[in-house]
Amino acid sequence: MTPVLQVRNLHVDYETAAGPVHAVRGVDLDVHRGELVGIVGESGCGKTTLAYAITRLLRAPAHLTAGSVTFQGVHDTAPVSVTALTGSALRKFRWDRMSMVFQGAMNALNPVQRVSAQLQDLFHAHRPQLTKAERRTRVGELLDLVGLPERVARSYPHQLSGGMRQRVMIAMALALDPDVVVMDEPTTALDVLVQREILDALAELRRRLGFAVVFITHDLSLLLEISDRIAVMYAGRVVELGDSVKLRENPRHPYTAGLLNAFPTLRSERRDRHGIPGHPPDLAVPIAGCAFADRCGFVRPECTTTDVTLRPVGGTDVACHLYTAERQEVSG
Ligand SMILES: Nc1ncnc2c1ncn2[C@@H]1O[C@H](COP(=O)(O)OP(=O)(O)OP(=O)(O)O)[C@@H](O)[C@H]1O
Q: Could you tell me which residues are beta bridge partners of residue 317?
């Protein structure tokens, strides 16, 4: 089946006085209908930049320098080139077909407008044919959908808890029945219990409505629980992409293994956890070979000289010379 979202060779630079910072360096990613794809990596690896590039929200000094994003929703007979959309076509596409819940989104609600007015504005802009009464009914249905009581419609954002505000943002993201919702750290600012409630609500909504989610976080243990597939990002690239169960049981990239070791999972035994020594590279400096080479316990000579991109290894896609060498040894 055609993926709902296809990201190909995406590159994003930030132009700075000292030269370009290569924040996203050639990302390929497919998202299938209804699936939850997690994107994980340390701070600064380019997750948010990728999310903004996919949703066409990049603003200067960020620039898309190469690549494409293609979308094909349930009702599309032909693929939509998201990277080529402009003006009203782009405004109509956003929220309607692909929506976003960003980091700290709950603080993005307008403080002087009641929740119902903010949700109604969205219908007003995207569904102008609806009457006022119909818009009001939709708002009630939406709040109910995300588990909020009716009175929330009449509330101002400051009268709601963080968890309730984040549910309002999720309601907004789902208002127009999109095929894809991109979520960047949607629960990070919330306490663990509220986080759990929101994730459970999200899982239930996905079952009922069938939208796909791109879920971005630095928390691998969370992604292992909720994702169908996981993309591990390092220094602006996806270095491993695969089924989340396979990735947990048999991580292929040494960075993925390091991340797994750094995060406790709910089911894992209590034992010492180790961070990955060293730091990610400076993305303002061109990278020769594998960006993880200087932190990798399995480094080989070619790792510091020769670039390596994703290739299939045992049902997972991995960008690592360990496997290119093994393949040569096997075939040779
Ligand atoms: N305005 C900017 N100017 C220059 N460089 C930037 C700018 N914004 C981000 N960057 C750089 O781009 C890279 C990717 O940043 P990005 O915020 O996408 O990473 P991230 O993985 O989402 O991090 P976090 O988890 O901390 O949000 C980083 O190296 C960052 O320093």
A: 241, 312
